[in-house]
Each structure stands twice: as structure tokens, then as C-alpha cells.
Amino acid sequence: MTVLVAEDEKDIRNLIKINLEDNGFTVITASDGKEAWHIIQTRTVDLAVLDVMMPVMDGFNLLMKIREISTIPVIFLTARSDDIDKVLGLKLGADDYLTKPFSITELIARVEAHLRRSTEYISKKEKTSNIIAYGDLAIDKDKCCAYKAGELIDLGAKEYKLLLFFMENPERVFTKRQLYQAVWEDEYYGDDNTIMVHISRIRNRIEDDPQNPMYLKTIRGIGYKLHHTGNEP
Q1: What is the DSSP string of 140-187?
Q2: Contact predicate 138/146, CB 8 Å
Q3: Are 150 and 186 contacting, i.e. CB atoms less than 8 angstroms apart?
Q4: How many angstroms separate the Cα of 31 from the Cα of each of 55, 57, 189?
Q5: Domains of the chain (ranges plus CATH)?
Q6: Which of 48, 65, 138, 178 could be a cystine partner for 4, CB 3.0 to 4.6 Å?
Q7: Of the candidates 104, 100, 38, which has an alpha carbon nearest to the alpha carbon of residue 65?
């Protein structure tokens, strides 16, 4: 499991990193919110520990951006004990909150607890549902078949895996690197054309108007996400 630790105080950042690594976690660190946001967009992170008061981009703004693309557990750290900060963080989507000075043992216990719940939820979801539906798209994982409005979609192997990956992670933005590593299971060397060709082929099969896609959206400067207006509240 990979944990992102975003904390501008070097001593605290290193203390958390060392103790998490001693407990078997892979740790990526950032010293400000902007650096942490770049990591979230380009690396696979299972949980984030964020300091509230960071330079460049604070923890609250970083959390709002994370929640646009991910549901990973987030634990806030703050030197302020005000309930207002705590309530705001939780309303923005934080899963937990620790006030400095905190016990490193307690932080590790909370990290483990949130990851355990997250992993159990994903595991149960995978075991109980072999058919994934999104809008009028559906995938039968047992048969490796995709459908639109009940009609079978003709997809190649990589196109199927790419669409499956998007449907298992709706509303989340992925970079080309993340898509390549997840679907092709290989290192990405900047071959944008491979991703773009497969995205285009999928759009030709699932979109009513491939030039104005309603499902596979291009997020300028970042990558792609699966989104459909019919799934909005």
C-alpha cells in the first residue's frame, strides 16, 4: 500500500515516513500542496496524510481537488485545535483528523484502519458484482463483454480492458501514463498515440457523436475520465 505524506515541516514529514515504512508501507512525500497534487495525478496512491497549513496550496484546497478525481482515504494533520477547521475538513471529504502534537502510533493505527476498510469495501464490491453498469453502458466481467443500451459492443482486447478500467473508476481523471501502466501493464515512455488511438476507437463504439463525447471526456492538460450527465445528482 502506498501512502502520500504532504507536510511542509521536514522533521514531521521524515518522522511519519520512517515509521510508516517500518510498518511495511511505501511512502511518497511532498513539502507543499502543489507538489502533492502532482503526485496524486501521476502516481498510484492508496491513502493521503495531509497537513492543513501548507505553502503554495493548503490542505483544504488540495482535498477539494483530490475529491474531484479520487475517493482515497484522507487524514488531515493540523496545529490548530479549532472545531471549525475540523468540521470544514470533514465536510470537504476528509476521513479523519489529528491535531499536532499527535502520537505517531495513533497515526499509524488510523492509517491501517482506513486502508483496511477501503480494501474490504473494494473486495466486497468486486466479489458481489461481476456486472458493472454506468449510464446505458454495461460490462459483464465473466463474459468479457461490453454493452450499450443492451446491444453488444465490438471491442478489441485492449479497448475492452481500457473501458473496463474507466468503468471501475468512474469520474476519476487519469493521465496517459496511468492508463498505459494499468491497461498495458508496462512502463510508459510518452507514446501518446497508443492511448489516443484506443480512446478514439472506444468513442466510435460507445458515443452517439464521437466528436462530442458524452462518456469519455478529455480533461485538457491532464488526461481522460469517464463521465455522464445522466449520473449527476
Answers
A1: ETTTTEEEETTEEE---HHHHHHHHHHHHSTT--EEHHHHHHHHT-S-
A2: yes
A3: no
A4: 8, 10, 27
A5: 2-126 (3.40.50.2300), 131-231 (1.10.10.10)
A6: 48
A7: 38
Enter the C-alpha cell of residue 212.
Answer: 462530442
CA proximity to 29, closest of 55, 56, 4: 4
Sheet holding 223-226, edge to edge: 174-175, 223-226, 216-219
DSSP state of 220: T
Residue with cell 498510484: 44
Q: What is the pTM of this model?
A: 0.56
Radius of gyration over every alpha carbon of the chain, rounded to an integer in angstroms: 19
Q: Cα(218)–Cα(221) distance, rounded to whole angstroms? A: 9
H helices present in the chain, as ranges: 10-22, 33-42, 59-69, 83-92, 104-128, 157-168, 176-183, 192-206
**In this predicted structure, what is the pLDDT of residue 169?**
92
Cβ-contact 155, 202 below 8 angstroms: yes
pLDDT tens column, 20-54: 999 999 999 999 999 999 999 888 899 999 999 99
How would you list the strands of the sheet with 131-134, edge to edge?
131-134, 137-140, 145-148, 151-153
Grid coordinates standing for 35?
507538489
